[in-house]
Amino acid sequence: MIPRVSFLLLSILLGILGILCVVFTVYWTQHWLGGFAWDGSSQMFNWHPVFMVTGMLVLTGAAVLVYRVPLSWSGPKLPWKLLHAGLTLAAFILIVLGLVAVFEYHNKQGIANMYSLHSWLGLGAVLLFSCQWAMGFASFLLPWAPTWFRALYKPIHVFFGSAIIPLVVAACISGINEKLFFKLTSTTTPYSQLPAEAWFANILGMLILVFGLLVLFALAMPVWKRPDVNSQDTQEPLLQEDK
Amino acid sequence: MIPRVSFLLLSILLGILGILCVVFTVYWTQHWLGGFAWDGSSQMFNWHPVFMVTGMLVLTGAAVLVYRVPLSWSGPKLPWKLLHAGLTLAAFILIVLGLVAVFEYHNKQGIANMYSLHSWLGLGAVLLFSCQWAMGFASFLLPWAPTWFRALYKPIHVFFGSAIIPLVVAACISGINEKLFFKLTSTTTPYSQLPAEAWFANILGMLILVFGLLVLFALAMPVWKRPDVNSQDTQEPLLQEDK
Q: Any transmembrane segments, and where (chains A, B) (predicted)?
């Protein structure tokens, strides 16, 4: 009973934090960075942080915790697999849109792509995420992966799934930091004097950090792990569900 | 036997990566940022990345893995506790020096302190590290902490010990990113055109990321965890060792 209640409480906290991360990102981009458009302007860029924080951080954080929900421990695993795949697919769509937003903006404005450490890290996270989705789909939802392969690949999928979280946190933090240095250089109140925008976006960065650490904490707690973690569940592909 | 060999191989890889991180940081600061001094100039600042990468990342990474060394699983735990405390103490000394280097430089040059997200994150990591060291020393080395307290505090100490790693990785990445934007703005080849320095420091950032992820991987692998993880070891303070 205690694991269920404590997991529920943590989930509520993570839900609040996740919503706060998205709301803070939207408010920052809306209020200080000029709002949204889809026209290659800096307003198009503004979708980039919103989509990345929502998809890559919050939806991915929710997706990696699906199998920690105690309800998922009994009964068929398929609905939970579909929920995991659905959440990560939604995240993936947002990630692609987030990439389009920044590349289109750069290209229209004649700004170079993929030079900063933030961009290298972010692209690394996107590539890892894409491999995870494709491999997870082919191994655990499609019926033709042999059982030995599922058993072998599962811990790898689980490890890289959680490795995405610190990667994304580092990408978000470096991205916010770099945007503030870009934006608050030529203003009357530079970043170094901590105007309201800098406070706000720094707090957003800390919220993202706490969210990421709490997701890693929830993943690491043995008491919240699915008890039958290495048994039947690797052997249940989509098309064999009714066997 | 296999866990021992695989852990040895991972340790060698981590050793090489850790040395590479330090060597890359020293080479970057020596070759491109102007070398070292202790006089409040930008050469004093250069100690900051060197001390932080060495202490906060590499030594801390080694320290958190001490209890994963299979040799530590049998025999008295005290030498390993002292090794863990010694490595983290060495790290702490470097961290303090790394902070002095950046604050002195800022103060002498009239640059504001503690405004960027990188600095907030870094200070958060330093505060967490300090709490961990003080609490770990008082709980596991000094003799007066009661057994129930050790048992209660140990998983918290272990969790925050591993939480420091992603925090430090994010701090290092955002720090390198920000330094490159500072440095490569007014040069003939800006950051956006990826001069050799940018390539070099970006690769340093990726090395730091891989090092951090591998440390987290080594920590998470059940096969490398000390088998008696929740038994006698919480009950063995320094001064009761010979009982």
A: 7-29, 49-70, 82-103, 123-144, 156-176, 196-220
